[in-house]
Amino acid sequence: MASIFGCDTLTAMIAQIKTAALGALRGAGRHGIDFLMPPTCPVTGERIDDPVGLSAAGWGAIHFIDEPYCDQCGAPFAVDYGQGILCPSCIASPPIFDRARAAIVYDDGSRSLVTGFKHNDRTERAKTFGAWLARAGRGLVVGSSPILTPIPLHWRKRMYRRYNQSALLGARAAARLGARYESDLLVRIRATRQQHSLVSSKARWENVAGAFAVRGSRIGEVADAHIVLIDDVLTTGATLSAASNALKRAGAARVDALVLARVVKGGVGAI
Ligand SMILES: [Zn+2]
For the chain, what is the radius of gyration of the CA atoms? Predict the structure, then answer.
């Protein structure tokens, strides 16, 4: 039978209704769920009392990123080479964004914590993660008045997931930093494949090239501004570069990136 809706739209609507119902049940039955399914540490699986906390071992498995790191992309260094030093990758191929900072390393210790927040409705973690972002990004806002804005989802993915995880992070981080936050400076002008589903770096760059634009009504706010892009995970930097490119073409004076977690080739402090 023919439908009045397009197939994609109908599928997305059904998914939205289903996830909204599950979300309502979760919210209404939080105490009951805690009784039937006691909270566990998202890192280690141990039983814990605080439904939004971590066990001691879970905290130990999270690797926070502190100096020394590459002055541009924020990749941690194993050795302190001094101030203003760039990593080999930034020297060989400078990123489009001016600087990037990340709160934690994306590795076996943090993966479930981050993916649960991104894909499985664990949005209560935004408060903690926002504090971590503010700690990592404080140096980006010193002496400046930046606008924090999230990497946007395509409208279809936003409807399916019901929230933009980067927007939740951005709002919390901005409140902590006392910075201006705007949720919709950028728009994703075409749907892209999930970056983590693409193996090669080349495929990731091609997937997001030209995927972002500054919203027409917001171009005046972007011109000559200092923008801090907010995202959840930095892997190759392709998504942040594509978004930075759109902002710089619209006249942004400076574009930095602040992310929750970043992949570090070879592990913590590998360079
Ligand atoms: Zn670098």
Answer: 19
Domain positions in the chain are 59-262
pLDDT at 184: 95
**Residue 95 Cα to ligand 1 middle (Å):** 8
Q: How far is the CA of 73 from the centre of ligand 1 (A)?
A: 4
Query: What's the CATH fold of domain 59-262?
Result: Rossmann fold (3.40.50)
pLDDT at 207: 80
Distance 270 CA to ligand 1 centre (A): 12
Centroid of ligand 1 to alpha carbon of 14 (angstroms): 43
Report the separation in Å between the CA atom of 218 and the middle of ligand 1, taken as the mean of its atom positions. Answer: 30
Percent of the chain with pLDDT over 70: 84
How far, in Å, from the CA of 76 to the mean position of ligand 1?
Answer: 9
The pLDDT value recorded for residue 4 is: 42
Name the stretches of the chain with pLDDT < 70.
1-36, 266-271
